[in-house]
Write a structure and sequence with these properties.
Mean pLDDT: 86
Order of helices and strands: HHHHHH
Number of helices: 6
Number of domains: 1
Structural class: mainly alpha
Helix content: 55-70%
Shape: globular
Oligomer: single chain
Distance between the termini: 10 Å
Radius of gyration: 18 Å
Protein backbone atom coordinates (compact mmCIF):
# COMPACT_ATOMS: atom_id res chain seq x y z
CA UNK A 1 0.00 0.00 0.00
CA UNK A 2 2.80 2.44 0.86
CA UNK A 3 4.73 1.46 -2.29
CA UNK A 4 1.66 2.18 -4.43
CA UNK A 5 1.12 5.54 -2.74
CA UNK A 6 4.77 6.49 -3.23
CA UNK A 7 4.68 5.38 -6.87
CA UNK A 8 1.53 7.45 -7.43
CA UNK A 9 3.13 10.46 -5.73
CA UNK A 10 6.29 10.18 -7.83
CA UNK A 11 4.30 9.71 -11.04
CA UNK A 12 2.17 12.74 -10.20
CA UNK A 13 5.21 14.87 -9.43
CA UNK A 14 6.88 13.79 -12.69
CA UNK A 15 3.67 14.51 -14.62
CA UNK A 16 3.31 17.94 -12.99
CA UNK A 17 6.95 18.76 -13.71
CA UNK A 18 6.47 17.77 -17.35
CA UNK A 19 3.36 19.96 -17.60
CA UNK A 20 5.27 22.86 -16.08
CA UNK A 21 8.38 22.51 -18.27
CA UNK A 22 6.22 22.20 -21.41
CA UNK A 23 4.18 25.25 -20.32
CA UNK A 24 0.91 23.28 -20.46
CA UNK A 25 -0.01 25.02 -17.19
CA UNK A 26 0.11 28.40 -18.94
CA UNK A 27 -3.40 29.11 -20.32
CA UNK A 28 -2.06 31.74 -22.73
CA UNK A 29 0.32 29.16 -24.26
CA UNK A 30 -2.47 26.58 -24.57
CA UNK A 31 -4.91 29.08 -26.09
CA UNK A 32 -2.18 30.19 -28.51
CA UNK A 33 -1.91 26.57 -29.63
CA UNK A 34 -5.67 26.01 -29.88
CA UNK A 35 -6.25 29.24 -31.86
CA UNK A 36 -5.44 27.88 -35.31
CA UNK A 37 -6.58 31.12 -36.96
CA UNK A 38 -4.18 33.11 -34.85
CA UNK A 39 -5.49 36.41 -33.51
CA UNK A 40 -3.62 38.56 -34.33
CA UNK A 41 -2.67 36.97 -37.65
CA UNK A 42 0.22 34.49 -37.51
CA UNK A 43 0.00 34.20 -33.71
CA UNK A 44 -0.67 30.45 -33.74
CA UNK A 45 1.83 28.63 -31.50
CA UNK A 46 2.42 25.06 -32.75
CA UNK A 47 4.99 24.16 -30.06
CA UNK A 48 2.54 22.17 -27.94
CA UNK A 49 2.05 19.80 -30.89
CA UNK A 50 5.60 18.59 -30.19
CA UNK A 51 4.67 18.04 -26.54
CA UNK A 52 1.64 16.00 -27.60
CA UNK A 53 3.61 14.01 -30.18
CA UNK A 54 6.27 13.20 -27.58
CA UNK A 55 3.63 12.17 -25.05
CA UNK A 56 1.88 9.91 -27.57
CA UNK A 57 5.16 8.27 -28.60
CA UNK A 58 6.21 7.60 -24.99
CA UNK A 59 2.74 6.32 -24.11
CA UNK A 60 2.63 4.01 -27.11
CA UNK A 61 6.00 2.48 -26.33
CA UNK A 62 5.22 2.36 -22.60
CA UNK A 63 1.93 0.52 -23.07
CA UNK A 64 3.51 -1.92 -25.50
CA UNK A 65 6.23 -2.79 -22.98
CA UNK A 66 4.10 -2.81 -19.84
CA UNK A 67 1.28 -4.91 -21.27
CA UNK A 68 3.75 -7.69 -22.06
CA UNK A 69 4.00 -8.29 -18.32
CA UNK A 70 1.64 -10.81 -16.71
CA UNK A 71 0.54 -8.18 -14.17
CA UNK A 72 1.50 -4.69 -12.94
CA UNK A 73 4.30 -4.32 -10.41
CA UNK A 74 2.09 -2.86 -7.68
CA UNK A 75 -1.37 -4.28 -8.38
CA UNK A 76 -2.87 -7.74 -8.74
CA UNK A 77 -4.15 -7.09 -12.30
CA UNK A 78 -4.29 -4.47 -15.02
CA UNK A 79 -7.30 -2.11 -14.88
CA UNK A 80 -7.98 -1.41 -18.54
CA UNK A 81 -11.22 0.03 -19.88
CA UNK A 82 -13.49 -2.58 -21.39
CA UNK A 83 -15.86 -0.25 -23.20
CA UNK A 84 -14.72 0.61 -26.72
CA UNK A 85 -17.86 1.85 -28.46
CA UNK A 86 -18.42 5.49 -29.33
CA UNK A 87 -21.74 6.70 -27.96
CA UNK A 88 -23.51 9.99 -27.30
CA UNK A 89 -22.12 10.28 -23.76
CA UNK A 90 -18.55 9.93 -25.03
CA UNK A 91 -19.08 12.51 -27.76
CA UNK A 92 -20.83 14.93 -25.38
CA UNK A 93 -18.09 14.51 -22.79
CA UNK A 94 -15.34 15.08 -25.36
CA UNK A 95 -17.14 18.18 -26.68
CA UNK A 96 -17.59 19.55 -23.15
CA UNK A 97 -13.93 18.86 -22.39
CA UNK A 98 -12.84 20.63 -25.59
CA UNK A 99 -15.08 23.62 -24.95
CA UNK A 100 -13.74 24.00 -21.43
CA UNK A 101 -10.16 23.66 -22.60
CA UNK A 102 -10.69 26.17 -25.40
CA UNK A 103 -12.45 28.72 -23.20
CA UNK A 104 -10.22 28.52 -20.13
CA UNK A 105 -6.91 27.24 -21.50
CA UNK A 106 -6.89 24.52 -18.84
CA UNK A 107 -7.71 20.86 -18.73
CA UNK A 108 -7.77 18.93 -15.43
CA UNK A 109 -4.13 17.78 -15.14
CA UNK A 110 -2.50 21.12 -15.93
CA UNK A 111 -5.06 22.95 -13.79
CA UNK A 112 -4.20 20.87 -10.73
CA UNK A 113 -0.47 21.35 -11.41
CA UNK A 114 -1.03 25.12 -11.81
CA UNK A 115 -2.66 25.34 -8.37
CA UNK A 116 0.88 25.72 -7.03
CA UNK A 117 1.01 29.14 -8.73
CA UNK A 118 -2.01 30.34 -6.73
CA UNK A 119 -3.68 32.23 -9.59
CA UNK A 120 -7.33 33.12 -8.95
CA UNK A 121 -8.39 31.91 -12.41
CA UNK A 122 -6.87 28.51 -11.66
CA UNK A 123 -8.59 28.28 -8.29
CA UNK A 124 -11.95 29.14 -9.88
CA UNK A 125 -11.40 26.58 -12.65
CA UNK A 126 -10.49 23.78 -10.23
CA UNK A 127 -13.43 24.66 -7.95
CA UNK A 128 -15.79 24.52 -10.95
CA UNK A 129 -14.22 21.23 -12.04
CA UNK A 130 -14.77 19.72 -8.58
CA UNK A 131 -18.35 21.03 -8.55
CA UNK A 132 -18.94 19.37 -11.94
CA UNK A 133 -17.60 16.08 -10.61
CA UNK A 134 -19.87 16.34 -7.57
CA UNK A 135 -22.90 17.07 -9.77
CA UNK A 136 -22.06 14.04 -11.90
CA UNK A 137 -21.78 11.83 -8.81
CA UNK A 138 -25.11 13.10 -7.44
CA UNK A 139 -27.17 12.83 -10.60
CA UNK A 140 -25.51 10.45 -13.05
CA UNK A 141 -23.07 8.04 -11.38
CA UNK A 142 -25.81 6.10 -9.60
CA UNK A 143 -27.24 5.05 -12.97
CA UNK A 144 -23.94 3.35 -13.78
CA UNK A 145 -23.27 1.33 -10.65
CA UNK A 146 -21.24 -1.46 -12.28
CA UNK A 147 -17.81 -0.57 -13.69
CA UNK A 148 -17.01 -1.52 -17.29
CA UNK A 149 -15.54 -4.97 -17.84
CA UNK A 150 -11.91 -5.07 -16.76
CA UNK A 151 -12.22 -2.05 -14.46
CA UNK A 152 -11.92 -2.64 -10.71
CA UNK A 153 -14.70 -1.82 -8.28
CA UNK A 154 -14.02 1.30 -6.20
CA UNK A 155 -11.65 0.35 -3.42
CA UNK A 156 -10.17 -2.56 -5.42
CA UNK A 157 -6.65 -2.72 -6.88
Amino acid sequence: MIARALAALLAGLLFGAGLTVSQMINPAKVLGFLDLGGIPANAWDPSLALVMAGALAITGVGFALVLRRPRPLLAPRFALPGKRDIDGRLIAGAALFGLGWGLAGYCPGPAVAALALGATKTLVFVAAMIAGMAIYELFFARRNTAPPAGMPEQGDA
